[in-house]
């Protein structure tokens, strides 16, 4: 057998084994929380028009902001190979300082406090 056939056979067998095992391993007796239409903690019997906390959105936006920070800093190791690595280091440091200042501002304003 050539290499391509061997790789396809291994991939197919491994996929089938994982599919079969995934049907046997999960717990098949769900509790009342899993049978509830809302697993996230909201009361399904209350009004659907209750105001939603804006702090949740603030935390979500902060998470996205710091998640994008990683995406901006990922090219940094390859940027060291450029003609001017000091410029790359400058921009990476500027991004980190800006985000750190934003985090300090949110912290001092109480934006990260979940309970009032």
> What general form does the structure show?
flat
Helix content: 55-70%
Radius of gyration, CA atoms, in whole angstroms: 25 Å
Distance between the first and last residues' Cα: 67 Å
Counting H and I runs of at least 4 residues, what is the number of helices?
5
Largest sheet: none
Structural class: mainly alpha
| Stretches with pLDDT under 50, minimum 5 residues | none
List how many beta strands DSSP finds.
0
Family: Belongs to the complex I subunit 3 family.
Protein name: NADH-ubiquinone oxidoreductase chain 3
Transmembrane segments: 6-25, 56-76, 88-107
Catalytic activity: a ubiquinone + NADH + 5 H(+)(in) = a ubiquinol + NAD(+) + 4 H(+)(out)
What report would you give on this structure?
With 116 residues, the chain is mainly α. It has a domain at 83-110. The protein has five helices and no strands. Helix 3 (54-73) packs antiparallel against helix 5 (85-109). It is flat. The termini are far apart.
